[in-house]
Batch of 3 targets.
Target 1
Amino acid sequence: MVATSMMKMPMLKTLDITLMAMNAALYAGIGYVIYFIFPIVAPTVGGVRFWPVVVIPATFAVLFGPIVGGGGAAIGIFISDLLIHGDPLLSLTAGVTANLVCFGLIGYLSQKKLDWKKTFLSLGVGVAILATLAYLVITPETIVNYFGTTLEQALWNTYFVLAIFVVSYVIIIAVGLIRPKWRSFGAASVTGSIVGSAIVGIGVWGYTQFFALPAAIGGASNLPYYAGMILFAWTFATEIPFMVILVPPIAEACYKAFPRLRVKREE
């Protein structure tokens, strides 16, 4: 029995490394292509890209757990950052850490049986607090002064960000009602996204207090404190809808194609 277990351990470890490498390669490669098709970054603040490819590590995290999901995402974002802006320190400060924690949490929490009512009530309160904080910090006057837009445009930008918070939470509730088996994933995706987005906002803001952002993403330095909240809101708002809508059907398709994946997850 001992010999058999010892023989299996390296195979599992090798499999995890292989899956992590696949996750990283797909995340970096597809993300790199999408960025050059849609080179969109956070308004004026820069540094954070429009990044729907979070669906890839989120799916790996659900199927194979936190190590494969978080580790592959951290490696993948580091590679893509070097290809796009070439600053490894910025990537390690914000992108790598945020991806490791975000998708590690998604992989871990999505496998737990959570009390749906209590969990989503708590998340609802948390989302409401974050939306209120974003509204108080990212005021229309702040946007007008910093971004140079009109007051009307600033109001619409603020309302749009707040709407994303609300709509994302509604989508997660809907997914939980329609697909009860994915309730834990809904809670995990919100939790992981909130923590990961916060790390991005704080990390990029903190980095600019000492260094300038790479020229490829704007070259800004000494960003004001509310820039961190803008980056947090941008990251959360542009990533969470893709995860909660696309990951469940993709994972279900994988389960149908490879039934052993569902059995392994239940074990």
Note: The chain has one domain: 2-266.
Target 2
Amino acid sequence: MQKILITSFLMAVLFSCGPGTPQKEAIVYEPTWESLAQHNEAPEWFRDAKLGIYFHWGPYSVPAYGDEWYPRWMHFENSREYKHHLEKYGHQSEFGYHNFIPMFTAEHFDPEEWADLFQKAGARYAGPVAEHHDGFSMWASEITPWNALDMGPKRDITGELAKALRARGMKLITTFHHDRHLQRYAGKPDETRFEDSHFPLFAGMPPATTSGDFDYLYGNIEEEKWHREVWLGKLKEVIDKYQPDIIWFDSWLDKVKEDYRQEFCAYYLNEAQKWNKEVVIVRKQDDLPLDVSVDDLEKSRKNKIDEKAWMTDETVSTGSWCYTEDLRIKPAKDVLHVLIDIVSKNGVLLLNISPKADGSIPEDQKNVLLTMGGWLGKYGEAIYDTRPWHTFGEGPTVQPEGHFNNHREFLKIKYSNEDVRYTTKGRYIYATILGWPGNGQQVTLKSFARENLPEKTKIRSVSMLGSKEKINWKQADDGLSLQMPAVAPDEMAVVLKIKI
């Protein structure tokens, strides 16, 4: 009896370490790529999530002109931002970027309302651009006085939203664009564009000021101090305060010294183990190894299935990432089709919205999110928790090659009801047609042609999500032929559920 009790006790201790399965022995990550490669860069929850939402929102939203790079271009005399600034606010030497911060009031920011909207849109994670290139921190920072709690909104934007998201079972992403923040051109008075840094060093302009606290806003700091106290310090602060599930980096991460990049990764991954969480690091270019991080493609997509999970960051608008008065918003159908295409190729979408400086989200952007969310609420089983099939799809629409450099070509893509995207889950294959082929129309899915199938696949049944009508189908050598129902369940995209 005593042996039985001891054995039972030991088993109870073993299985109490985690829900359902024994906890893995903790890894102590060292700041080397070899050690960091032990990290599972794309955990299952991330691959299952498919859709996240973030937002470009900060003092650059106040002028609502040009784009989120206004803080930079307002200093260049040949730019339209310079002329606009001069006419509306006065000379840049008298009214600098820092003067916009008191105007960034965010009085209509409601984290509960925002989190509700993101959840209704179908996102499984969300969060802020924690800091853009401009040096303003959207959290309660003790490193810089230029933060949302001490200035502008005088609220902990990141903290309030994180609490609201987690109350809804959603995960938190924080994105960092501050790799460009450091002024890297000391001793180069002949520079004209200052390509490696966000703020230009023009004499008499605020970014050239070193008095007071302006250096922490404009990046006019000694390089080693900036790396340690600002770049790495801010990352550690957000990690410690908010325990983000995803940390995402914009381009120019390669401008940060490699040992600091390694130190960040080790710190984040070791802290995550203390939280008993699997976290994700996302990078946009070849500045972190892909056995440590997830690859991100800005405003572009892969044109084939990738063995590794990847991400696209895309925005609801056709232009600026932040709110501008002339911002043009894409149709919900186009954004939905991008999501469906990405998921079919083992990707995840990070979708940007653009709130106003007062903290309100414009109705046209809300409508896009709610329309997408309505579709996902009905047909999301073809998206969430799925994996790619042997082919991502078929149809006449062709994607360009390349990355962000080709983003204008990606913007021109319009999918049609002849384009099909596939996903799979368990014994089901989902064929999502990007439009309505027509009432009673015959459709042949050529990916099911016997010569195209990787192995013998026997179809058991075919149904259409959202339709009660019986689907007449036939599996033949040239593909799976089927007849559309007499009534369309949806006009944006329809899903065939194929049991094998």
Note: The first strand starts at residue 51 and ends at 55.
Target 3
Amino acid sequence: MTRPLEGLSVVEGSAFVAAPSGGMTLAQLGADVIRFDRIGGGLDHRRWPLTADGISLYWNGLNRGKRSVAADLSDPEVRELLSELVARAGNFLTNFPTRGWLAYDRLRERRDDLVMVAVTGSPDGTSAVDYTINCAVGYPAITGHADDRRPVNHSLPAWDLICGQTAALGILAADRHRSRTGEGQLVGLALADVAMAAVAWRGELADVEVNGSERESMGNDLYGAFGRDFVTADDRRVMVVAITPHQWEGLQTATGAVGAVEELAVELGLDFADEGARFVARGRLGEIFAPWFAERTLAGVAEELDAHGACWGPYRTFRQMLDEDPRCSTGNPMFAEVDQPGVGVHLVPGSPLAFGGPEATERGAVAAPRLGEHTEAVLSVELGLGPAEIGALVDRGAVALPN
């Protein structure tokens, strides 16, 4: 396996999605990531979905490839030990409040070139989560159908996930800066900034500021080009997108609609070579294509669209994705069947990055640690404590070993 980050050490103090997903990204690429939690687990250790035995599939899913330390984070000796662990690693990723023993200046006393990425909700340090950020950045107002004006929060915590990848990038960028200059630094990263930057990247802010526009919700229609959902004869839905000339030609040819589309273009005085014109006429174009989909099963639709190079995808539930999509199986080198302690064997992804090409088979698809699984090893190997010292910590409940 290509492990481009082998030799990079990171300590992670985190909860929920953003920071843990960033740490896991680094771990899957070969970094040694040690996550510390309070004894019994932190705020996210029992988050849904759970197995019948109460094990969090959520926590396992975000912590694969890491080492786990469980300790009493209020204990002064534990704080000293963890501070020393951070110093020896040289990189610290956290979304815990950066005050007291976790303040950058305090941690830096042990290592002047310390790199620390601190994730917050808002730039001023106030609390926020994906759902309270998402509702404030415009997207729920344009998600949903035009005949239902209620805002709809997207169920995917996109800002958390993008924030996690940005946090991982922040560690790597600051580590590279240190390798060139010898300087460590504190890197701030606000979830709100991630979301607002993304809104600006896509032009939505400029559209309001420059054009005075206010985007409306339009169901599953693709803004600015032709794209929409259709219902098949067996009551499945597919999403079809025609942005490029090749995609547009493929859709028309597959559905036998070339003549009807040409007639509509003449009637409306539009040039459908322009994707914007296709968006303007999306309602009428949809009326041309819809009967073709309604007369065919999903399998028939798939065969014809694929044969003509159209761009499309079926709507699926999570269950249907697992059952139907070959990309969600061990046929995809990103996935492997992993035996997760306490859960059993199930499909686990490694890194989407395929070093060596798309057929690279070793991508860090491994189990998540049991809470506290590596407490003893970290205390012994990384911090140099002897058996008697570790035993004393365990006996007084300052650290915990796995059951």
Note: Residues 161 and 271 are 39 Å apart (CA to CA).
